[in-house]
Amino acid sequence: MARIFEYFVMCGIGPEIRTLYEEKGFHGTGIMYLPSLLDQYPPSDHKLYSSPPPQLPTCVLPAGVAFYSSGFDSNDPSTFPRSYPIVLTDGDGSKIYVSCIAFRDPVSEDIAEAYHIPANSFADKCICLVSRSPSFNVLRTSLEEIFMLCFSSSGSR
């Protein structure tokens, strides 16, 4: 039986910040930044599986990464987590199905300090399940549960 997903991937602002125009560094909150692959499972050095497509961070956060002065606000729908599917075509014509949930997450202290980003800033982050099977409902439900467990202050249902 085939795996339900091949990779769990996290994308967002990486250790080397660049604007969409390839300018290095932090240039303020009104600027969009290139997304990076932050983490994945299985790890990239795993011998049984090929790596996810290198363009995946740009595909899952196509507008780039924005910085914000606040995170989730229950009174502001623009701050709510967003779930969405993506279908990519591999070089051999096969389909890659990606289920995503994007949200605002606190900027790590190391990155904020290194780039002089205001304290308590937030940036776009996206967690994804990459699959060869078009099981979007199962993948979305799984991602929402992972989000609640790992990134939400309210915890899991």
Describe the structure.
With 157 residues, this protein is of the alpha+beta class. The chain is 17% helix and 28% strand. It has helices at 56-60, 109-115, 136-150; strands at 7-12, 36-41, 67-68, 82-89, 95-106, 122-131. Strands 1, 2, 3, 4, 5 and 6 form a six-stranded antiparallel β-sheet that branches. Strand 4 (82-89) and strand 5 (95-106) form a beta hairpin. This is UDENN domain-containing protein. One of its GO terms (biological process) is regulation of Rab protein signal transduction.
Features:
157 residues; alpha+beta; six-stranded antiparallel β-sheet; 28% strand
Order of helices and strands: EEHEEEHEH
Number of beta-strand segments = 6
State the helicity in percent bands.
10-25%
Using the alpha-carbon principal axes, give the shape.
Answer: globular
Gap from first CA to last CA: 29 Å
Pfam families: uDENN
Protein name: UDENN domain-containing protein
Organism: Punica granatum
InterPro entries: DENN_Domain_GEFs, Tripartite_DENN, uDENN_dom
What are the SSEs and their pairings?
Elements lengths: L6 E6 L23 E6 L14 H5 L6 E2 L13 E8 L5 E12 L2 H7 L6 E10 L4 H15 L7
Antiparallel strand pairs: 1-2, 1-6, 3-6, 4-5, 5-6
Would you summarize the structure shown here?
Residues 19-157 form the UDENN domain. InterPro entries: DENN_Domain_GEFs, Tripartite_DENN, uDENN_dom. The protein has 157 residues and is α+β, with helices and mostly antiparallel strands.
